[in-house]
Amino acid sequence: MKSLKSKYGLDETTTLPSDPELMRLYNEEREQWISDNCERKYTPEYYKLFSNLSPQTNAARDVIQFKIKSILDKVRDDNGTLHLNDLKDSEYLNLLDLYNQKRALASEYYTNGEKKVDIDLKIAQELK
Questions:
Q1: Cα–Cα 20 to 30 A to 65, which of 39, 101, 102, 107?
Q2: Span 6-51, pLDDT tens digits
Q3: How far apart are CA 98 and CA 109, in angstroms?
Q4: Burial tier of 20 (Cβ tally within 10 Å: 0-12, 13-18, 19+)
Q5: Phi, psi of 115, rounded to the nearest 5 degrees
Q6: CB-CB contact of 26 with 16 (8 Å)
Q7: Rounded CA gap, 36 and 84, in Å?
Q8: How far apart (Å, rounded) are the C-alpha atoms in residues 114 and 121?
């Protein structure tokens, strides 16, 4: 991974190339390296789909996903099993709301029924 980062001129503080085409190439090589060298939970196709998302789509999804993970990590045991019944009612309701927000990202319509526009529409189309 260090040599890959070096190849694309990335340092410790820069995680992705700023040029969209270089970012796509970097992500492809990174995903291939991980697929070849690591055991992963999902299929290579799953990870390839996510590596091709735009930075805006990744950022929008990651904000929600990070919040979901922080809630679930509180009730995950050492074996990785979730114990959702250990969540407080407010945490559980927050979790459900976050899942709804995540689903709404992939919808081409806002919750009020209006068609999404601009970057919101692009994000929805990428996540379909």
A1: 39
A2: 898 888 777 777 887 888 888 888 888 888 898 888 888 888 787 7
A3: 17
A4: exposed
A5: -70, 135
A6: yes
A7: 34
A8: 11
